[in-house]
Design brief:
Elements: H1 2-18, E1 26-31, H2 35-39, E2 46-52, H3 57-65, E3 71-74, E4 81-85, H4 89-100, E5 107-111, H5 118-149, H6 151-154, H7 162-191, H8 200-223, H9 228-245, H10 257-263, H11 267-281, H12 289-314
Helix pairs in contact: 1-9, 5-7, 5-8, 5-9, 5-11, 7-8, 8-11, 8-12, 11-12
């Protein structure tokens, strides 16, 4: 019934409200000595934020590198320049077209993805999608198969805590996910020419935390699934919104709030922010504290729920004590 009723409704809502590549508003800051005069000449598409006459082009580049806005106008009196964050593809395309329009006095320059190449923004997102697939689908299928085979029940007579069993079971998938991440990243850089401007350690840390979240989701799915068919269906229900509403395909900025809020509850949304920031913009750690923090919080919540569900539904006797024996009659 879920596949017959809920899934079509999900497709209707997502593609009716969220499937749009149009960006109606672009966030822009204005720096430079002529900031106040240039601000009034910008097209209506731009939503002007900070106006800083004392800041220069270097400050504008740093602002974009940290992902604080979509574009920055450097208001030089002789030749105003519009710097655009090319890692946000659809906003960058809209900003570039707006700056090129006859009503704009600003000359556009695209940073971090100068040719606005689609593969440069898709590869960092695909890295997260592959890890989400491994963590959600493969993990849930593997644990349900072990449950059906009786392997998990055999652990009930051993002196293990539920957290020990879960960590032991997800450890191989965690390693596989990191290996796949490294392979896909290397192939993306080699085949598609995607730059890797930032720190490998920052991306690896974000990938590790993201993997813990999706692995925890996979464990939760396995605890409420009676067979592999149910596990696949539930995994698809969890994975599909992450593909459509995380900003991977459709920009979050183009979605109405009635749908966009779902994207802010999805872990892939925050990993994509980290991967694009590190790979394309060389974003520093302090500018990514929010997505890192959200993923860490999600990991704690999801793994905690997985341990509780595992203790209650799969192996209630795994409490670190010897199993009770019947008294002789």
């Amino acid at each position: 019934m879920a596949m017959l009723v809920v899934l079509p409704l999900l497709f209707l809502i997502v593609f009716g409200y969220a499937a749009s590549f149009d960006v109606d508003t672009i966030k822009v800051d204005v720096y430079g000595p002529a900031a106040e005069s240039v601000e009034g000449d910008l097209p209506e598409l731009f939503d002007v934020g900070a106006v800083e006459p004392d800041k220069n082009r270097d400050d504008a580049v740093d602002t974009l590198r940290r992902g604080r806005t979509d574009a920055v106008v450097v208001a030089d009196p002789a030749s105003p320049e519009g710097l655009i964050d090319g890692s946000n593809l659809f906003s960058a395309q809209a900003a570039n077209a707006a700056f090129d329009s006859a009503e704009s006095p600003v000359e556009p320059t695209v940073l971090f993805n100068p040719d606005l190449t689609t593969s440069w923004v898709m590869v960092p997102a695909i890295i997260g999608l592959i890890m989400a697939f491994i963590g959600t689908v493969i993990t849930s299928l593997g644990l349900v198969r072990e449950r059906q085979a009786g392997t998990l029940e055999q652990l009930a007579v051993m002196p293990f805590q539920p957290s020990d069993v879960i960590l032991g079971k997800i450890a191989p998938y965690f390693v596989i996910g990191l290996i796949d991440m490294a392979v896909v990243t290397a192939l993306g850089v080699w085949i598609f020419g995607v730059p890797f401007e930032g720190s490998v350690g920052l991306l690896a840390f974000g990938a590790a935390v993201f993997l813990l979240v999706v692995l925890g989701v996979g464990v939760l799915i396995s605890t409420v699934s009676q067979n592999q068919g149910q596990a696949i269906q539930m995994a698809m229900f969890v994975l599909l919104p992450q593909v459509l509403l995380s900003g991977m395909i459709f920009p979050l900025e183009s979605m109405p709030w009635s749908v966009r809020w779902i994207g802010y509850l999805l872990p892939l949304t925050y990993f994509i922010e980290i991967s694009r920031g590190v790979m394309l913009r060389a974003a520093p750690f302090d500018s990514l504290l929010f997505p890192y923090g959200v993923l860490i919080l999600m990991a704690v919540i999801v793994l905690g729920l997985a341990v509780l569900r595992f203790r209650r539904d799969l192996a209630p006797d795994i409490d670190g004590t010897e199993p009770a024996t019947e008294a002789p009659s």
